Sequence to fold (144 residues):
Amino acid sequence: MRAVIQRVSRASVSVDDAVTGAITGPGLLVFIGITHDDDAAVVEYIARKIAELRIFDEEKSATEINAPILVVSQFTLYGSTKKGRRPSWVAAAPGPVAAPLVDAVADSLRARGLPVATGQFGAHMQVELINDGPVTILLDTASS
Fold:
């Protein structure tokens, strides 16, 4: 699993000009990519890291300040550009595998008491954000 975490002042995601999720920060926008061998243990690891990263003022975590989180699925995090000019998506898990795991990440963050909004899995989404800092962190369970 890969997660791109951005500390934001605000963020929203829209599908067909309708907002499906929005947060006002300080908070986190988290793009999640799922690969074929991800499972419940990986979900819990990523959710814990997202919730406990000390990336807010005074080295506080999202859990400590009850920061809202916007979770957006993004299969392109597993795009490979090693060959040619067209990215390969073979490392990205298919929708029936990935969708429940993205939902599980959001649910695990909610279970930690955090307010969570989401995008719409598989939809063409427009994401707007104000990156705060900027702070952008990449988590990859294959190298963590």
User: Anything to note?
Assistant: The domain at 2-140 is CATH 3.50.80.10 (D-tyrosyl-trna(Tyr) Deacylase; Chain: A;). The two ends are 10 Å apart (CA to CA). The longest strand covers residues 18-33.
